[in-house]
Amino acid sequence: MAAPDKAIAKLRAEIETHDRLYYKDARPTIDDQAYDRLKKELEALEAAYPSFDFGTSPTKSVGDDRLEGFESYRHRVPMLSLDNTYSREELIEFGKRLEKRFPEQSLKYLVEPKIDGVAVSLTYEKGRFIRAVSRGNGTEGDDISQNVRHIAGLPEQIENAPDILEVRGEIYMLHEEFERINSVREAEDQALYANPRNLAAGTIKLLDPTEARSRKLDIVLYGVGACEPTRFFSHQAEIQERLKGWGFPVLENIWLTDGIESAWSSIEELDTLRQQFTYPTDGAVVKLDDFRLQEEAGFTSKAPRWAISFKFEAERAETLLKEISLQIGRTGAVTPVAILEPVQLAGTTVSRATLHNEDEIRRKDIRPGDTVLVQKAGEIIPQVLGIVESKRPADSQAFDFGQHLKDLGIEAERDPDGAVWRIASKDNPIRQQRALQHFASRACMDVENLGTAVVEQLVSRELAKNIADLYELTKEQLLKLDKFAEKSAQNLIDALEASKQRDLWQLIHGLGIPHVGKQSAKDLEASFDSLDSLSTATEEQLEAIDGIGSIMAQSIHAWFADSDNRELIDRLRKHGLDFTSKRQQNTDGAFADKIFVLTGSLPTLTRTEATDLIERVGGRTSSSVSKKTDFVISGESSGSKYDKAVKLGITILDEGAFLELLEK
Ligand code: IVH
């Protein structure tokens, strides 16, 4: 292969990986700017060597957010992306191109904030909300209605509407809500979300609607896809007015400007205002106002020629990296954290930044004493972008992760299959403490009165080293702890007693099996009726479960194979912890283990209500139709799931028949 050929292939593969991480996994590993640079580089190469431009390229498409388990819908009008730029010159050039195209016209542009969220298309038929679909690959997206229809401010019904209307906008999360969720996660020792956009994207793609509803999302609408009949709009600015009139949340600050230079002034104004916006804004979108001209300008394969997005540079600052501190998690995993000389960035003081793991530190050659460049883009958690080499002290030495652990007296080993160092010994008091804190936390066994200070004392006095020890604590022992009296000791004993009846998923989560978080614990409970059946599951059985991948399957299997853990389980059993799923106990058996799939919108029940009913009789819901499905409950405008159920000969019920069946 010729050199440019190789470079093109390599860049395409790299960008495709980042597309998957961003759109499907909501877990990007690079920031927008770095990503946009890669894309520009590829575009330039493809333009310079058009003969190599074979096959598909990520420069010609809009990415793809579709996931297994969701029903796909075709957009009536495709959802495209926008060309973007970080430079004023390129923005002016965009305007010049349009002026050349329409020499007779004086062009008006609408300047809008660009919301850093997740694109969505809402379909209304005869004014009634029918469904919400993600952008998908631009042509076809996932039905995310069940996680969207509860968003505050979204009208269920609109008056004087066209027969068919696709309203386009952005789902986002407020900084406040993002911080609330992260602080709960921090208290529960779970990995933090990097920014509100990723968390919003992850939330709309949750298969568990109850979990999704526990996180507050917001929405703002700015555009229209299909509209039948079409007489409704002639200008972009008018769309805002109409949407507002129908009761949709719309962008508060927009500018209708004459010519591209004045559009630029509005962008500058927007930049000074955006700190005060409640929604995350990472740029401006400039749109030609007149629809007739929009139509004439047309589209490339992935973006309109009549609009462009101008992205603001992420804020960056230099500061001193004072030390690399090591944090220990519930499974003994050691996470490096940069302790920084406090610096002002995007309106907040930054004094810590995650360094992810040993490989990241090595790749960027980050050393204590370095001056580092930190960035807070959409990232609320600051990132260390790299070091300022010219400011490195002469006596600086590469950071030796293993040696640093030794110096701190922490005995840890690096995971053979990852970049994570983990404290190997279960006797390590910090690890013991973290494991107990996790077990007692709200997302696990919810043991009241067992906070950090108490756990610390229990471990340091060797009264509890593991979770089974907790159930052997006596009142006499507790009375010897600081600040404990008769009443508080009794309260803790009672709280521990009460925790024995928690849901199975809470117990599974509390065990602290590496990689198993709250959602996975729920997925496991949905597939196993007791801890005993989970503990004897093979890796293959585990991997067959929706939401459980091979790494997690291996981890669960290895955890239950460990003799210490088996002994722990036996002791928990002896102490009377409930190992069985209450979901199963509630049933009379008729629907136990029956798999239901919901599709379309039901006349009276919401998805959550229907799911609750199913679970109450011992059944469970799945999001995709397969041979294993027992019933499909189908509502209005159901699509591909319905067709598949017919093909597989699965019993299809409407809401009435479903309720009748439950009654029986
Ligand atoms: S208009 C034909 N307006 O940015 C595309 N998009 O980078 C029309 N976005 O896919 C899109 N704020 O998800 C438009 N005020 C705004 C926007 C906006 C955010 C998103 C949208 C789009 C992406 C392109």
Supply the CATH class of the largest domain. Answer: Alpha Beta
* Overall domain count: 5
The gyration radius over C-alpha positions equals: 28 Å
Helix content: 25-40%
**Largest β sheet strand count, sense and barrel closure:** 7 strands, antiparallel
Outline the structure in words:
With 664 residues, the chain is an alpha+beta fold. The chain has five domains: 4-60, Helix hairpin bin (Helix Hairpins, Orthogonal Bundle), CATH 1.10.287.610; 72-176 and 196-311, 2-Layer Sandwich (D-amino Acid Aminotransferase, Chain A, domain 1), CATH 3.30.470.30; 316-423, Nucleic acid-binding proteins (OB fold (Dihydrolipoamide Acetyltransferase, E2P)); 429-582, 5' to 3' exonuclease, C-terminal subdomain (DNA polymerase, domain 1, Orthogonal Bundle), CATH 1.10.150; 586-663, Rossmann fold (3-Layer(aba) Sandwich), CATH 3.40.50.10190. The protein is globular and about 90 Å long. The mean pLDDT is 89. The structure holds 2-(butylsulfanyl)adenosine. 2-(butylsulfanyl)adenosine binds next to strand 3 and strand 8.
